[in-house]
Write a structure and sequence with these properties.
single chain, 426 residues, alpha+beta, 6-stranded antiparallel barrel, 6-stranded antiparallel β-sheet, 10 helices, 14 strands, flat
């Protein structure tokens, strides 16, 4: 009986082993299919260890007359709410300055008259001139100056601003419900975060691009010629970087980086748009919207975005179209905790408190690149932070010596299959 039992046991053992083997193979195959089909977020790393941009400075760029102030220090305001009204018409400003000068003179002469240092007739003549100036009607009504965002108004001098001539900073508006960080982007996918910054993967026609850049003579098209002239400036950041690039070639990785660097340097220049043959009516709506502000008044980010749109318009099909979208952000705010004193007198560092937050990138991204590590800045916004985060940031603003807040996380730039994530370099 022992032999048959042994055979039965071996047969069943082999059967079970085959079943388990098939199950394991099935799980492996299913896992491989899952890794190929299922996609997860493809991200780029971001980090910031500085205070968020919770402050918007309200300034008067030119000298104006402040007619009235509707808020005081510490008031909560909504975006668009009127803070003060000002008079900036040149003729009306001259009249208001005359009124103020006469009023000051009348007050000084009144004091001198009471001290019997001056004849009363002089004071009366000044008062008459003041009354005459006040009788002249202003030609334009005062203009409102509104809050740039929701927040708390901070400005000690607000109470003394009414009926005075002013220029420069008026007050600050602190917004603790929306934290804007100037974050550093580094690692993989950096060129996929900034909607305007060119990366090697954005170039579709390398041979055409290098042929244009290395052409011996200026191209006939005014807009193409503008790019050619700026890229071939006798400078280490322009022409020198194209020294080893052959016309009509597809460069190696180092060469591609050099070409992209030159093109990004061109996109930072204000000289790109004027006199280059671009008719505003033929430009994309986003470019026309930016141009309404005037090229001279554009911020660096707006200028960079405009030039990227001009690049795509001038060379259709040569570059990837950059979508003007706000990419999702997944982040963590690390609030430091004070060290704990142990019974033996030593101090023990405590782990920071972590607060997860979500938000998005903003369209006003900074294209500034850090030459040392290749990272660059991007503005992100994180909304509705926890009360603990707000309280610490307020204390940190008042006491700069407190430990810095650290923001770390990632920008979602697209989707990627799981297997590509598992075998990626990072």
């Amino acid at each position: 009986m022992r032999a048959p039992l042994r055979k039965i046991f071996i047969a069943r053992y082999v059967l079970y082993l085959e079943i388990i083997g098939f199950l394991i193979m099935g799980v492996i195959i299913a896992g491989m299919i899952f890794c190929v089909i299922y996609q997860i977020d493809d991200t780029a790393r971001i980090k910031s260890d500085d205070l968020p941009l919770t402050i918007e400075h309200l300034t008067l760029p030119s000298r104006v007359y402040v007619d009235a102030v509707q808020v005081k220090d510490g008031d909560a305001v909504a975006k668009g709410q009127r803070l003060l009204t000002v008079q900036d018409d040149p003729a009306d400003l001259a009249l208001m300055e005359t009124r103020l000068d006469l009023a000051a003179a009348a007050e000084a002469l009144t004091s001198l008259t009471l001290n019997r240092s001056l004849s009363p007739d002089v004071g009366k003549s000044v008062q008459a001139a003041l009354a005459g100036a006040q009788a002249i009607a202003l030609t334009h009504p005062p203009k409102p100056t509104t809050a740039p965002l929701n927040g708390i108004v901070k400005g000690d001098a607000l109470a003394q601003m009414a009926h005075t001539m002013r220029q420069g900073q008026v007050c600050d508006v602190h917004n603790w419900d929306e934290l804007r960080f100037e974050a550093r982007v580094s690692g993989k996918n950096t060129d996929r975060v900034n909607i305007s910054l060119l990366g090697p993967r954005d170039v579709l026609e390398w041979r055409e691009l290098t042929r244009m850049l290395k052409a011996p003579d200026p191209p006939p098209s005014p807009s193409v010629r503008q790019f050619w002239e700026l890229a071939n400036k006798d400078d280490v950041n322009f022409k020198d970087k194209l020294k080893f690039i052959a016309a009509g070639s597809k460069p190696d990785n180092i060469g591609r980086t050099d070409v992209v660097t030159v093109m990004n340097n061109v996109l930072r220049l204000k000289e790109l748009y004027p006199d280059a043959g671009w008719a505003p009516a033929n430009l994309p709506p986003e470019a026309r919207s930016i141009l309404r502000k005037g090229v001279k008044d554009l911020t660096d980010n707006e200028l960079f975005r405009l030039n990227r749109l001009l690049l795509e318009k001038t060379f259709p099909g040569w570059f990837e179209t950059s979508p003007n979208v706000h990419q999702p952000v997944k982040a963590k705010i690390l609030i430091p905790r004070p060290s704990r004193r142990l019974p033996n007198g030593l101090e023990e560092k405590q782990k920071p408190i972590i607060f997860p937050m979500t938000g998005e990138t903003l369209s006003d991204k900074s294209p500034t690149v850090n030459i040392l590590d290749g990272s660059y800045g991007v503005t992100i916004v994180l909304r509705h932070p926890a009360p603990e985060v707000q309280d610490y940031l307020k204390r940190r603003l008042a006491k700069p010596k407190m430990d810095k807040v650290i923001m770390t996380g990632s920008v979602v730039v697209g989707k990627i299959p799981v297997f590509r994530f598992l075998f990626s370099k990072e």
